[in-house]
């Protein structure tokens, strides 16, 4: 796909390892590849639409929909590692051998898994208000498969998937996009899927390329606040921390120009 002055974008659907896949794409195919991985509150379009065309000026941008989470009609994958392997296969099917990988929220866990397990595919990795998912001890994984434990985990996840949490994730609730509110209709489907992925855990090896930590400084969600970003930077070898002021959990939505500028400097 060759891009003109308007940086045309398209939704590409293809088959990857016998299963359907899709990604929102923009940019010149000859440009350096940039893979954008969304979080659990909505799909690729909701997360990346405000920055897609800006990033396509200098990159070939690929923003996949994660199975069962972004593309809710498809079957979910059981773990972070499985999602990471799936995205590597998708990139390969699209002719991309190396890319910079950027993940927001849960997507940060996925790109951390890509960087740790498939380092030959990674020229850079950025965590946007997210972090590598830790490993779950074997005993807890087994307990997590029991009915009471699964019910407890789903109850915990429901506390994240509620309207009050949305407001805490934004510096200004007035900036909450309609597309995020529309995504709430899918949350009853997503909650049990996401809970199962959390039980599976991950614990990838550290990335060989030092990560960029790109965080909205006004994120008040548990685990992804400014303080947690600083702690993550302190314990991650070689990490660079960039804070975007007046932005919360989705800096690409609240401050798209500052977000793109930070990625371009990277």
Task: Classify the helix fraction into a percent range.
Answer: 40-55%
- Percentage of residues in DSSP E strands: 15-25%
The termini sit apart by 25 Å
CATH architecture group name: 3-Layer(aba) Sandwich
Account of the protein in words:
Helices cover 41% and strands 18% of the residues. It has an eight-stranded mixed beta sheet, sandwiched between helices. α1 (44-55) packs across α11, α2 crosses α3 and α5 (147-160) packs across α8 (187-200). The protein is built from eleven helices and eight strands. The longest helix is centred in the first third of the chain and has 14 residues, at 80-93. The radius of gyration is 17 Å and the shape is globular. The protein has 266 residues and is of the alpha/beta class. The chain has one domain: Rossmann fold. The two termini are 25 Å apart. α1 links the parallel β3 and β4.
Describe, in short, the structure shown.
The protein has helices spanning 44-55, 80-93, 106-117, 138-144, 147-160, 163-168, 178-183, 187-200, 226-235, 251-254, 256-265, and strands at residues 9-16, 19-26, 33-37, 60-64, 99-104, 122-128, 212-216, 240-244.
């Amino acid at each position: 796909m060759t891009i003109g002055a308007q940086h045309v974008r398209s939704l590409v659907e293809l088959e990857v390892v016998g299963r359907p896949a899709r990604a929102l794409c923009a940019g010149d195919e000859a440009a350096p590849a940039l893979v954008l991985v969304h979080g659990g509150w909505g799909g690729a379009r909701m997360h990346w639409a405000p920055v897609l065309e800006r990033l396509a000026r200098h990159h070939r941008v690929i923003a996949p929909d994660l199975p069962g989470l972004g593309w809710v009609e498809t079957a979910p994958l059981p773990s972070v590692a499985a999602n990471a392997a799936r995205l590597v296969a998708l990139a390969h099917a699209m002719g991309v051998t190396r890319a910079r990988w950027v993940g927001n929220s849960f997507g940060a866990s996925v790109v951390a898994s890509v960087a740790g397990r498939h380092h030959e595919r990674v020229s850079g990795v950025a965590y946007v208000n997210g972090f590598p998912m830790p490993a779950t001890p074997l005993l807890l994984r087994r307990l997590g498969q029991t009915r009471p434990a699964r019910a407890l985990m789903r109850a915990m996840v429901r506390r994240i998937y509620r309207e009050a949490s949305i407001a805490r994730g934004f510096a200004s609730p007035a900036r909450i996009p309609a597309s995020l509110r529309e995504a709430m209709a899918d949350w009853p489907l997503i909650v049990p899927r996401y809970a199962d992925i959390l039980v599976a855990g991950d614990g990838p090896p550290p990335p060989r390329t030092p990560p960029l930590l790109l965080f909205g400084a006004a994120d008040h969600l548990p685990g992804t606040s400014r303080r947690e970003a600083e702690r993550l930077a302190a314990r991650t070898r070689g990490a660079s921390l960039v804070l975007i002021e007046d932005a919360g959990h989705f800096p690409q939505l609240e401050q798209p120009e500052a977000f793109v500028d930070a990625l371009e400097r990277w």
